[in-house]
Amino acid sequence: xxxxxxxxxxxxxxxxxxxxxxxxxxxxxxxxxxxxxxxxxxxxxxxxxxxxxxxxxxxxxxxxxxxxxxxxxxxxxxxxxxxxxxxxxxxxxxxxxxxxxxxxxxxxxxxxxxxxxxxxxxxxxxxxxxxxxxxxxxxxxxxxxxxxxxxxxxxxxxxxxxxxxxxxxxxxxxxxxxxxxxxxxxxxxxxxxxxxxxxxxxxxxxxxxxxxxxxxxxxxxxxxxxxxxxxxxxxxxxxxxxxxxxxxxxxxxxxxxxxxxxxxxxxxxxxxxxxxxxxxxxxxxxxxxxxxxxxxxxxxxxxxxxxxxxxxxxxxxxxxxxxxxxxxxxxxxxxxxxxxxxxxxxxxx
Length: 349
Hints:
alpha+beta; 5-stranded mixed sheet; disordered N terminus; NAD binding; NADH pyrophosphatase activity; Pre-Nudix; Mutt domain protein; NUDIX_hydrolase-like_dom_sf
């Protein structure tokens, strides 16, 4: 049998866990549990701007990289007529897996189902391992077909859903879906030793309580600039949005790690010391009921703070950092050979 193919083989495997490209990341386990690989998750758009990518493609990238031909011609013998079998278009990753090109998926459900079955059989024969399939929002009708063939949900973001398929027998060694969200709290204290606090407009447990301005890192910036928001940038932005106060970052004084919070994900909350550059408060009436400058004694006298050991300790640490003029971690921009990117290392100098 003559087989016409255009495919490459990769000798590496998933036994050392999947190492992400610099354009996406997960909280990692196993041998990569290090400072350089513990990065928070960020989403990716279906179409990326014309930027220089890493040396190998990631499952989140929708561009075209070393595509394999979509049609394989199988001829049982030289005299019989040829017949074409459609395979899904994609490329090999560095771990003997396959990344399916979302832009070339058949629009017809029947054509997709046929090509998917043929492709899975072909990849099994070649000894492939993990299969990544990114299905765009306009291709949503293809999701049930892939699930019926054994694909699993990995994660979803606005514009796409990511599915995976583990071919070998035994436990799946593909990395798990993103598991953390990142929050920030801004501790702003002025020359009068007054702390900037807010009352949130929500029916939560802290409703009616004066508290530090808090929020989440804004991942939407990634879609526009290909860069995620830094922790200290997020703190400055949240304070400005909620209170109208301009600030500059001084140091990170503490962080809290809580398990199974929103959407059963882990929650990282970073407390940042900020220096006020203005004093006039203008609240965001959509989120904030009120905001003001308050003495630390008045803040701590609230019954809510009296009962919450975490908030009391955070306030004590922040006041100590303010009085000692250098207690926590400052941000230093450095480049790592691991991903080739300029990033911030938070440390005490």
